[in-house]
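Researcher: Good morning. I'm working through a list of sequences from a screen, and I'd like to move beyond sequence-only analysis. For each chain I'm collecting a predicted structure so we can compare shapes side by side. This is the next one on the list. No need for commentary yet; just the structure.
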Amino acid sequence: MGHTLMENRHGLVVGAMVTQADGYAEREAAKAMVAQARQRNPETEITLGADKGYDAAEFIEALQEKKVVPHVAQNKSGRTSAVPDAIATSEGYAISQEKRKLIEQGFGWGKLIGPIRQVMVRGVKKVGLLFTMTMAAYNLVRMRSLGQVRLEVAQ
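Model: Good morning. Structure tokens for this chain:
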């Protein structure tokens, strides 16, 4: 499974990794990438927007221990959400829920333009290198697009 961590302001991928698929891979990868982001920015407020699959008490507690605000979509279908209502009603939470959809653009680009639709290498390490390079290439394309938007606004 390929996993990415994105910053919300510009939609750039700041972390990418590949793991063996199992029922916990997404949450474990997210915790690892958030820990790396926290090490790079120990004083900066970090929020993590994610879909309902991440709404698990253990995951939310792990984020809060790392001083990361969990902007995870609440999963209230037949159960109680682990995301506190105080967070879920905040203005920042609403913004994160809109912005989290940007992460799909990198995967779409990687499958349509890049080589991750059907990889030609085997093994987690090789696929991980290919996936990371694909996301780096996506960032370059995204930065070019962001630069063009700024030029249009400046004129």
